[in-house]
Amino acid sequence: MPERSPETHVIDFRAADQLLAARDPRGAIRLLDPVITAHPENTAARLLRARAFFLAAQLRSAELEFQIVLEREPANAFAHFALARTLERAGRPDEALRHFRLAAALEPRPDFLEAARFAPADGAEGGGG
């Protein structure tokens, strides 16, 4: 295989993103592996590979990759949320809830709040009488 250039890595990253969107996580992983080998500090590539591992049901690999992202970017709400989904899928709901709550605290999006099981601020259910 010829030596890869930085430009080739950018092309591979973008192609991997497209493969992931087309539901080909294994193809995305194949493209991202050499990118991350050449640029292990590239958090965007690691996050994309973590998502690909998750979609390929390679949960342990996804978990490890999301953890690397969070070591570098502890305030990355999406990485906390995605790690939580990974842990949930792996049958570890208590660990998942912790990361869902961190995601919701960092970025109070409706889907993050719902997953964190925080009560809505308005329209709370309940009945009185």
From TrEMBL:
Repeat keyword on record: yes
Which segments of the protein form a coiled coil according to its record? none
According to the UniProt entry, where is the signal peptide? none
Keyword Repeat attached: yes
Listed A to Z, the keywords are: Repeat, TPR repeat
Q: Which residues cross the membrane?
A: none
InterPro entries per the UniProt record, alphabetical: TPR-like_helical_dom_sf, TPR_2, TPR_rpt
Name of the protein described by the UniProt record? Uncharacterized protein
